[in-house]
Automatic annotation (TrEMBL):
<feature type="transmembrane region" description="Helical">
    <location>
        <begin position="266"/>
        <end position="285"/>
    </location>
</feature>
<feature type="transmembrane region" description="Helical">
    <location>
        <begin position="158"/>
        <end position="180"/>
    </location>
</feature>
<dbReference type="GO" id="GO:0004252">
    <property type="term" value="F:serine-type endopeptidase activity"/>
</dbReference>
<comment type="similarity">
    <text>Belongs to the peptidase S54 family.</text>
</comment>
<dbReference type="InterPro" id="IPR050925">
    <property type="entry name" value="Rhomboid_protease_S54"/>
</dbReference>
<protein>
    <submittedName>
        <fullName>Rhomboid family intramembrane serine protease</fullName>
    </submittedName>
</protein>
<dbReference type="GO" id="GO:0016020">
    <property type="term" value="C:membrane"/>
</dbReference>
<dbReference type="Pfam" id="PF01694">
    <property type="entry name" value="Rhomboid"/>
</dbReference>
<dbReference type="InterPro" id="IPR022764">
    <property type="entry name" value="Peptidase_S54_rhomboid_dom"/>
</dbReference>
<keyword id="KW-0645">Protease</keyword>
<keyword id="KW-0378">Hydrolase</keyword>
<keyword id="KW-0812">Transmembrane</keyword>
<feature type="transmembrane region" description="Helical">
    <location>
        <begin position="121"/>
        <end position="146"/>
    </location>
</feature>
<feature type="transmembrane region" description="Helical">
    <location>
        <begin position="241"/>
        <end position="259"/>
    </location>
</feature>
<keyword id="KW-0472">Membrane</keyword>
<dbReference type="GO" id="GO:0006508">
    <property type="term" value="P:proteolysis"/>
</dbReference>
<feature type="transmembrane region" description="Helical">
    <location>
        <begin position="217"/>
        <end position="235"/>
    </location>
</feature>
Length: 295
């Protein structure tokens, strides 16, 4: 004898959102078919997709890139000039340390040609120091911000980082090469600080980048002329560092701007390797000619 209660159909449980099991969800993702509550729904070309499918789609989708290798579009985080912010932050923190340590932090990191022979890290660290005058750091950080927010998204973070660091070191190498006679010139014992070499490297990089984009170079050339002249007429400004950063920045940007599309990744790695090798060779050659290495 059949049990009538056993023949009654059981009512199916309502579908719930996998990410929020306490929420009933009758709308399903068009991609994976899972229920999605209103918080987890994302509009798609047809219907909606869940947040997990949207995230996976973004992760696996090919990224469009600029002619220099930077990522086009993407998320707000990807477009943010993180490297520019980081360099500015390091410079600001370093400047505060210069003030609170009474100059000891400055003496530890500044550059002068004789000091670079035995403490080579100074070729880089001097670019993150500034004079105690707020105008020095304010001008450099403003110039870095203006150029960085334009160049970093175009080049991409890796290339932009390489550009900044090589230009910074290139500025100090130029100070060394143009210091004159080490036994008569005061340049060999004059400390050099400031991100000006790096900033001029970004100015120099703007030239091939704008030319590659087919834009006018007029404003950048005027800016370079004015700032370059300041280095010759205003005392205690290292025009040598400006010139070195400018040349290195322009050469690095030329390599990135005109690299064939199929060689962009290779060029991205060759530029720092070749750049460091050339700068080290120039510095070692200068010191060796004077017989001061290993002192």
């Amino acid at each position: 004898m059949n049990d009538p209660a056993a023949e009654e159909p059981t009512e199916a449980a309502p579908p719930v959102c996998p990410r929020h099991p306490d929420r009933v969800a009758y709308v399903r993702c068009q991609r994976c078919g899972r229920p999605a509550c209103p918080e987890c729904q994302r509009p798609a070309a047809v219907g909606v997709q869940c947040v997990d499918c949207v995230r996976e789609s973004r992760r696996t989708a090919p990224r469009a890139r600029t002619v220099f290798g930077g990522v086009v579009g993407g998320t707000t985080t990807a477009a943010r000039p993180v490297v520019t912010f980081t360099i500015i932050g390091i410079c600001v923190v370093s400047w505060i340390l210069q003030l609170v340590t009474g100059g000891r932090w400055t003496e530890l990191l500044w550059f002068w040609p004789w000091g670079g022979a035995v403490e080579p890290w100074r070729f880089l660290t001097a670019s993150f120091l500034h004079s105690t005058s707020p105008l020095h750091i304010l001008f450099n950080m403003y110039a870095l911000w203006i150029t960085g927010q334009f160049l970093e998204p175009l080049l991409g973070r890796l290339r932009f980082t390489v550009l900044c660091l090589l230009a910074a070191v290139g500025g100090q190498v130029a100070v060394l090469l143009l210091a004159g006679d080490p036994y008569t010139s005061s340049a060999w014992v004059t400390p050099v600080v400031g991100a000006s070499g790096m900033v001029f490297g970004l100015f120099g990089a703007m030239l091939p980048v704008l030319r590659r984009l087919g834009r006018s170079l007029g404003q950048v050339l005027v800016l370079l002329a004015i700032n370059g002249a300041i280095g010759f007429f205003v005392p205690r400004i290292s025009w040598q560092a400006h010139l070195g950063g400018l040349v290195v920045g322009a050469l690095v940007a030329v390599a990135y701007a005109y690299a064939p599309r199929e060689r962009r990744a290779l060029v991205a790695w060759l530029v720092p390797v070749v750049g460091v090798a050339v700068l080290v060779a120039l510095a070692v050659g200068r010191y060796s000619s004077l017989g001061v290495l290993g002192m």
